[in-house]
Specification:
CATH class of the domain at 4-150 and 387-533: Alpha Beta
Cofactor: FAD
Protein name: Steroid monooxygenase
CATH architecture of the domain at 4-150 and 387-533: 3-Layer(bba) Sandwich
Keywords: FAD, Flavoprotein, Monooxygenase, NADP, Oxidoreductase
GO molecular function, one term: monooxygenase activity
Structural class: alpha/beta
Strand content: 15-25%
Radius of gyration: 23 Å
CATH superfamily of the domain at 4-150 and 387-533: FAD/NAD(P)-binding domain
Bound molecules: 3-acetylpyridine adenine dinucleotide
Distance between the termini: 37 Å
CATH topology of the domain at 4-150 and 387-533: FAD/NAD(P)-binding domain
Family: Belongs to the FAD-binding monooxygenase family.
Shape: globular
Number of strands: 20
Amino acid sequence: MNNIATLDQQPLDAVIIGAGFAGLYQLWSLRKLGLRVRVVDAAAGVGGTWYWNSYPGARTDSPSNVYQYWFSDELLEEWNWQQRYPDQQESERYFNYVADRFDLRKDISFNTRVESATWDDSTRRWNVKTDTGLTLNTQFVITAMGPLSAPLVPMFKGQESFKGRLVHTARWPREGVDLKAKRVGVIGTGATGIQVVQTIAPEVAHLTVFQRTANYAVPMINPRYDDADRAAIRAKYPETRKAIWTTFIGFDIPGQTRPFFSIPADERREILEALWADGTLRLWVAGFAEVFFDPAANHEVSEFVREKIRERVKDPKVAEILTPKDHGFGTRRVPLENGYFMTFNRPNVDLVDLRATPIECITEKGIRTSAGEIELDVIILATGFDAGTGGFLAIDFRGRDGVSLREEWKKEVRTTMGLQIHGFPNLFTTSAPYAPIAAFCNAPTCLQHQVQWITECIDYLHKNDRAVIEPTAEAEQRWLAHHDEIANQTLVAKTKSWYTGSNIEGKHFRLLSYIGGLPAYIEACDKVKQKDYEGFEVS
Ligand code: N01
């Protein structure tokens, strides 16, 4: 239990918002510096994404050997991954183990949502207010809300009139939802929708999948591990630990080194087949870099994957609806799938093509499209998130001179390397826009890098008897220009998706994640640090 009376008004060194991957590691790291830290999280437990997203079929698309913390050899030795791709329950167990193992809970206020954080120019400290009445005064605020924490819930006309059960995947009730023998509708076919659909189809009476944009997906092979597997994986940890920082996207697998069109067509096909058969995201994250910027290379790989989709769906009309044609492979997030396309061969599954028959509204009984009403007992919204910015906009951040982050970001979303924001001194931001996180980096790798950078920065301030750090407007502009220059060479930045903010009405169309690769990002961050925080005002 948090004792509000004792916490209230006690000066802290740092408040961390979020007790997921970044938040827990940030707490551990700042404690090592001897700082007084409090983590605040709206959830009742640790895990962030892996607390909230307990929908059926939720699991990582990153293999467990690179989806973990590297700060403790003991932890690496003790924790036994059960499978290559841990499901939500296993991931959540991992975070609970970490929280207990390092005695983190005593510094976490659960069931507490941060409502505002206000910088006080006179004291050069932040005042943080929460919905429980807990208020905190702190030198630093560190956001660790994750890039995908603000779900898109109220979306459809008439949604509140539905008499059945309506749930968003990212707010899945902890006690579960009984889907047995029910008529279920799933709206959305992103990484989440795909996992839900392939998982619940055998259990429900009837499943209707409402698809607006067809999605590519690559088959997952998810072996369960025994002790011998774990020993072999552990033996490679020293190598893995080094490799993750050197690959474009923070996995331990390097990409193809030969230029796509320097390879004869037959051999290219063989390579694509091998990447496909790997049962991982290798085809996307460690395939050919040209997929991201060369339309001809992208076309060939897209055709290859389209062929694979068509092969697995019996009804050619359904296969055509499921085959993406309006964007190239890899320009939106590519999910792994486990029988997703074959699910549409089942007699109890229907696909509704929302491009042909859009949703008009949700009714008392179900969903009405332009082709008529479909009666349902349960509607599952797998409709995604306000990515990158949503978590920030949910909090009223006020920086120097009372400036509002919400207002500033209405004009333009700006950050410096996704780590700080001009006008908001001593606010550090993990998983903010314009870092590689979410889209082009295995999140745990990048988050751990950001936490380390922030920790070293705070340590630097203390050691140099400085209290405040803030990026200059010029440095922020330079980073944005650099971000845009790289982004605009890619096909990704021209494609509609949450990567570019196009899933939110009125959001600026701009690639949210840095796409220069993790090594380039780390180099840029290191350079700033080595030059005594060049581009930042330190006082
Ligand atoms: O969300 P999404 P997500 N009417 O935005 C549709 C991570 N993740 O939750 O494409 C009808 O990708 C929307 O249609 P369209 C991962 O990074 C990781 O699936 O906009 N449809 C789309 O089909 C992922 O990328 C893991 O046309 C509407 C879907 O809803 C990110 O989370 C697992 C609509 C939303 O797809 C987000 O994935 C799951 C409307 N009004 C998620 N609005 C793993 O690691 C939206 N849609 C395994």
